[in-house]
């Protein structure tokens, strides 16, 4: 598999897992287990907006932006691990942790391979 093919595949996996994570967060905080407040959408926005800020980067395929996404995902991973420890959100947290792990790995590898391509290394 060539470097360009690896970068393309990892970018596709990144896009899929990124949007799957956004959908999961939306379903979790607005449909499946909304917060017991008058405004559950505020909790959703706090979780959704930092990730949604990377939508252009993920769609465009910016290697440096994918590296920054990996740093942000570390905070989400901590929250997902905590959610797996709670009986009511165990499966949601586990699903989130798996999606974050896939997204982190694919984004990190895309950033590496794409930056190598950009520098002209094969």
Q: Would you give an account of this structure?
A:
The protein has 122 residues and is mainly α. It has one domain. Helix content is 82%, strand content 0%. It has 5 helices and no strands. The protein has helices at residues 3-32, 40-52, 55-60, 63-84, 90-118. The longest helix has 30 residues, at 3-32. The chain is elongated and about 55 Å long. The N and C termini lie close together (11 Å). The model has no long low-confidence stretch (mean pLDDT 95).
Descriptive tags:
single chain; 122 residues; mainly alpha; 82% helix; elongated
Please give the domain count: 1
Order of helices and strands: HHHHH
Using only C-alpha atoms, the radius of gyration works out to 16 Å
The DSSP helix count reads 5
- Low-pLDDT runs: none
What is the percent of helical residues?
over 70%
What proportion of the residues form beta strands (DSSP E)?
A: under 5%
The structural class is mainly alpha
> What characterizes the major β-sheet?
none
What is the approximate shape? Answer: elongated
Number of strands: 0
Q: What is the element layout, followed by pairings?
A:
Elements: H1 3-32, H2 40-52, H3 55-60, H4 63-84, H5 90-118
Helix pairs in contact: 1-2, 1-5, 4-5
């Amino acid at each position: 598999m060539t470097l360009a093919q690896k970068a393309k595949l990892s970018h596709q996996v990144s896009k899929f897992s990124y949007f799957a994570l956004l959908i999961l967060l939306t379903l979790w905080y607005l449909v499946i287990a909304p917060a017991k407040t008058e405004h559950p959408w505020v909790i959703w926005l706090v979780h959704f907006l930092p990730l949604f800020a990377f939508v252009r980067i993920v769609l465009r395929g910016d290697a440096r932006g994918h590296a920054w996404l990996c740093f942000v995902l570390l905070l989400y991973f901590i929250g997902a691990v905590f959610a797996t420890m709670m009986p009511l959100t165990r499966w949601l947290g586990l699903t989130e942790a798996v999606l974050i792990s896939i997204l982190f790995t694919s984004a990190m590898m895309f950033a590496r391979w794409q930056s190598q391509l950009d520098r002209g290394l094969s």
